[in-house]
């Protein structure tokens, strides 16, 4: 059975079981940011009309929000909680891609902003003073005075920054399925599907589509399917689901630890870079004045 057939089959079952859940799905969608709301509204429309074709198209485009429907039986009281848990998770690829370049880019942008402000607002005030003194300027001062022409001709720098941003974005999308956050999301979705006694092959297809991974095989695990998750699949469905949830918790902890470490590293780095720039420019501008005072004394 192909991935498309698997999705269509489970969408048909979900639509048949959860026709009355359309108001709940719309309620969840109403609490989401506008850019994340569309897949949920498309799911609600499919449930309202009972249109399997429409539902299959919606599930193919965004499988993650359909996982609670696939894994819950008719009138399952846990459906509302599962929908809310899924909605509370940010889109995996977007979150990881943004994290890869947001902080490094913020360092570059803040540093560039400081350079621009100093070059256009502060340094021009010192240029006529240095000309009136008629003294030979230190190299650091000459470098500071040369910043403004460099920034005026700095369009190649902007192109380089834009290129780096695109590279970071591409790497984020390319490797998002390998991150701890994506592995946790995949493993938790797999746990829900396995607990519902969906065949392993079909559960892997559905959970993989939810995190942007395809061609997953327990015989040769590759991320986001880890060796631990593949071993858990050898157990009975309920036991496997408990093990998969525990594995997902471990990867959630790893993901949070990495984000905390990055935050603690990038914050001081940002302060240090800006401090070094301001310190260098301040020293460069006052060095001629200090030298002049020394000569006069």
Structure description:
- The structure is a single chain.
- The protein folds into 2 domains: 1-88, no CATH class; 91-297, no CATH class.
- Mean pLDDT is 81; it is low at 93-97 and 173-177.
- Helices cover 79% and strands 0% of the residues.
- The protein contains 14 helices and no strands.
- The radius of gyration is 28 Å and the shape is elongated.
- By secondary structure, the protein is mainly α.
- The protein starts with a helix and ends with a helix.
What is the count of structural domains?
A: 2
Q: What is the molecular shape?
A: elongated
Residue fraction in strands: under 5%
What is the tally of helical segments? Answer: 14
- What's the N-to-C terminus distance? 90 Å
């Amino acid at each position: 059975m192909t991935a498309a057939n698997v999705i269509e089959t489970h969408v048909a079952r979900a639509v048949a079981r959860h026709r009355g859940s359309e108001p709940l799905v719309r309620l969840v969608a109403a609490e989401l940011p506008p850019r994340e709301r569309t897949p949920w509204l498309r799911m609600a429309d499919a449930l309202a009309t009972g249109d399997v074709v429409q539902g299959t198209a919606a599930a193919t485009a965004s499988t993650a929000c359909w996982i609670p429907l696939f894994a819950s039986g008719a009138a399952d009281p846990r459906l509302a909680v599962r929908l809310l848990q899924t909605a509370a998770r940010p889109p995996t690829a977007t979150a990881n891609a943004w994290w890869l370049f947001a902080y490094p880019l913020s360092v570059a942008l803040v540093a560039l902003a400081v350079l621009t402000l100093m070059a256009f607002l502060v340094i021009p005030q010192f240029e006529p003073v240095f000309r009136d003194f008629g003294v030979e300027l230190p190299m650091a001062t000459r470098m500071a005075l040369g910043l403004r022409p460099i920034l005026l001709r700095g369009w190649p720098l902007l192109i380089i920054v834009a290129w780096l941003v695109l590279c970071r974005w591409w790497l984020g999308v390319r490797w998002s399925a390998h991150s701890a956050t994506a592995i946790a999301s995949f493993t938790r979705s797999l746990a829900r599907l396995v607990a519902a006694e969906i065949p392993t092959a079909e559960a892997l297809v559905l959970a993989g589509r939810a995190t942007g991974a395809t061609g997953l095989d327990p015989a040769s695990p590759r991320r986001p399917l880890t060796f631990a998750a593949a071993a858990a699949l050898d157990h009975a469905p309920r036991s496997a689901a408990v093990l998969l949830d525990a594995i997902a918790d471990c990867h959630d902890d790893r993901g949070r630890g990495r984000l905390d470490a990055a935050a603690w590293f990038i914050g001081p780095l940002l302060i240090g870079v800006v401090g070094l720039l301001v310190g260098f420019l301040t020293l460069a501008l006052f060095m001629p004045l200090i030298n002049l005072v020394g000569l006069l004394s």
